[in-house]
Amino acid sequence: MKKDQLLTRRTLLTGVAALGAAGAGGALVAGLGHGPSRPPAPVPAPGPVQRSPLKPSAYRLQPLTGYGAPRAAPGRPPVRSEPILRMTGRGRTMLLTFDDGPHPEYTPKILDTLAKYEVRATFFVCGEMADYNRDLLTRMADEGHVVGNHTWSHPLLTKLTRRRIRSEMERTSEVVEQAYGEAPRWFRAPYGAWNRAAFQLGSELGMEPLAWTVDTMDWTTPGTGTIVDRVEEGAAPGVVVLSHDAGGDRSQSVRALRRYLPELLDSGYHLTVPRRRLI
pTM for the complete prediction? Predict the structure, then answer.
């Protein structure tokens, strides 16, 4: 929705080393499996370890689904005082996120492009949209995407009572769990407007608050080329990109994704989904 950017935080954070020490940033990491124990590896000789650079295709998911054992449901996350703005992890990792859907026209086109390049993304859905497009949530689950909670009707949370905020979150989580297969583990406040009640209730419902670091401002329909430029100029390790798949005419967003996604991959970026580690 066009109002979704009133309180956006557009400043791209710098200094990956400093962010690695921040409590908020530490919540997002690449997931690691836990296999059987192995004998310790031999101690390498002193000096830098030489590694061959990965080809862009090595970053892509093969396959999208069916990998690894089922993960145990996480416990309640901490109550934060500000949202997570970026992720931590090795290499040139980024997150692509889409708000306000799912939309029956634009969301399938975005999913088609992501599938073409074997990339997963995060969709922050509004409950009233998800309720009418449950098949798209099922497809997101089948293709390995993450679905987050973006409230039921996209209200300004800072103007609501605590009871109303809970209702907005709970109703959406119920629809997501029914159609996607599990309750959402991530929450994004409409308009980027967070308050203490939102952080507390999100934690009670098992969700972490995720914001963004690069705002494409695609809701203003600035032109496909402008959206592409904003993504590529803001690309950096740990960046979370905000785009939209509903809330208006999102044809520019669809076309922009088709252009910048292969360019990011060819530049060696790993487009992934958030992984959670409670701190």
Answer: 0.75
